[in-house]
Each structure stands twice: as structure tokens, then as C-alpha cells.
Amino acid sequence: MTQIFYSKKMGKNFLLLYACNIPVKGKESSAIYALSRGAVFHIPNSFFNMIKEWQKDPFDVVEFRYLEEMETYREYVDFLLSKNLAFFTDTPELFPPMEISFPIGEIIKSAIINYNGHYSFNQLIGSLNNLNCKLIELRFGPRIDSLAQLNYLLEDTKKTTIRHIDVFINFPFNYRQRELETIIESNRKLNSITFCLADTTLRKTIDNCSVNFLPLPHQELIKYRIPENTPLVNLDYFMESHFFNPLYNQQVYIDELGRIKNHASQKSSFGNINDTNIEEIVRSRKFQKLWQCEWEKKPWLKNSPLRYALYNPAPVKYIARQPQAETVAE
Question: What's this model's pTM, rounded to 2 decimal places?
Fold first, then answer.
């Protein structure tokens, strides 16, 4: 008979995953989300079941149950310890599992804004400020063709709740490096500026702002930015996807004409900001319908251990695109 060896060797009574490493069970396999590392480890369901046993029973008690499967048992334990996913302890009560929750604060968390002069930019930014919006992506049309215009429009964002700004703009006809540096220095909320239709390909950083020069139109760049089943492994996304659809939750899309949508892919809109109160629209139950978590209605996603790690999930490419991870063999 295989000897019991781990509990004696370690001198501890319980084996626990670190709180930031969370197991998720699927129909055919399971996974451990290492949220602090941005990684997923694929594991068999038998491994998941064993982890659940360790969470409630002393290690030697669980070990005794697997005397006839000690080789597999040792493999699983060695994997957790070698990857620094778990630890032994005598005081499990001091290490409770992480609570699965997601706080609801602002009405609108982020906004994608297409602007080419067809509506009041100032009015829109004011409404987003009233909604406590924190992140915006500005996609400027060809009528915004100078750094001076960019700087003028950014002025509206300064005394607002907005904290993070990404800009897409065509390469200005009168581009001056020093003028760009001055704009970045005076607009600390800028996270990135991408100059489209540039005559070069260049990436650099100016005062913590990422500056990109690319020869493509912004429509082409944006089209491929978030492909289906993009892996996204972090604490916020993991928590949010338990309760909401992160693709739509607390987000608003404004097209070039000022039409209000949940997402660019929608053909219909909820109205136009030129004649509709956007604050009333985004607070409505109809607008927020797509925010709700619906993965449980999709069998292919409901049964996947990656259901909390796929951005823009789609069944066709589900198998082809998975988060980079290591797999523990059956």
C-alpha cells in the first residue's frame, strides 16, 4: 500500500490555494484562475474536486481517501506547490476564500465617442461627467485635423470624473512634436494617442502617454483590436463577469452622428444626443438590458471553465483561442 507522506513531510494540517487563485469547474474540464498573474491553469475535474476537499477537510484525511490513486494525488499536489498556487497551514480560518462580488458605483464606467463635429462635444462630456464616467475612447473624424483642435476638445475633459483617455486621430497636416508634448503635459488624463494614416510606423512614450503612428485608418485598427474570445484574466474582469456582461456593462457608444448605442455592432440606436437626454437613456431598463450576465443562457459558455476569462465570447472560435496556460494531464 502506498504510504501517506505529504502531511507528515510538511507538518501542516491543511492545503489551501492562495486567495487570488480561484478554481472554476466546467463540464469536461476545470481551471485555476491565477488572477494576480493574469494566467489560467487548465486542470481535470478530478483535480477540481480534490481542491474542494482540501478546502474543508484536513490534508491527511483527504490523502487517506486517495491511497489507491497516490501517483495522481502526488502529481496534483506537486503541481500546486511547484507553481506556488497553494500552501500548507495549521490555521485555515485565517485564510478565507475571496468573496465573489462586484461593486456598482458609477452609472457609466466607460464611453466610446466618435466625433466629427455633428453634435456638441462639450454637452456630451458634461453628461458623462454627471454619470461619473471614468474612461473614454475618442475616435476623431477627418474634420478634426490639427493638434490645436485636439487640445481645444480635450479642455472639456479636465474638470470631470474622467480619468483615462485614449485618442484615435488622423495624422495632423501641421504636426509639430513640441506642440504634441505640450498637449500631453497639460492633459495628464491622456493614456494614449494613436495617429492614423501616418506616413510611418512608430511607437514611443511621452510623459507616460503612449504615442503611436500607424499608416492605417482608425476603422481598420479598431476592427481588429478586440477579436472574439480575447483572453482577459484579472481580478476586476473575473468579478464583473460573474454578474454582468463585461462587453456592454456600464458602457455607452456614441457614433459619429451622435446616435446612442450599447455597442458599435448595433444597427438601431436609443436616440440622438442632439435631441435626446443621454442621462435618461443610459439609466433606462431598456438600455441596461444587455448589461446583464447571460452566459448561463449559452450552453457552450456555461459549461466552459473559461467563462470568466473570455472577452467578446463567440462559439465558433471558442476552441481555437484560449488564454495561455499550462495543462495538468488527466
Answer: 0.82
The single residue listed with the C-alpha cell 482577459 is 232
Name the strands in the sheet holding 39-43, side by side, starting at the edge strand that comes first in the sequence. Answer: 21-25, 30-34, 39-43
CA distance 143 to 173: 11
Average pLDDT over residues 231-254: 92
Do the Cβ atoms of 328 and 41 come closer than 8 Å?
yes
Q: Which helix (H) or strand (E) holds 164?
A: strand 164-170
SS3 for 216?
Answer: coil
Residues 6+ apart with CB under 8 A from 248: 262, 263, 290, 291
Q: What Å distances lie between residue 114 and 136, 215, 240, CA to CA?
A: 11, 20, 26
**Using one digit for the tens of pLDDT, what is the confidence trace for 189-236?**
999 999 999 999 999 999 999 999 999 887 777 766 667 777 889 999
At a CB cut-off of 8 Å and minimum separation 6, what does 191 contact? 164, 165, 166, 209, 210
Chain centre to alpha carbon of residue 91? 34
Other beta carbons within 10 angstroms of residue 210's beta carbon come to 14
State the angle between helix axes of 45-56 and 70-82 in degrees (0 to 180), rounded to the nearest 10: 80
- Segment (H or E) for 300: helix 299-302
DSSP string, 27-84: SS-EEEEETTTTEEEEE-HHHHHHHHHHHHS-HHHHHHHTGGGHHHHHHHHHHHHHTT
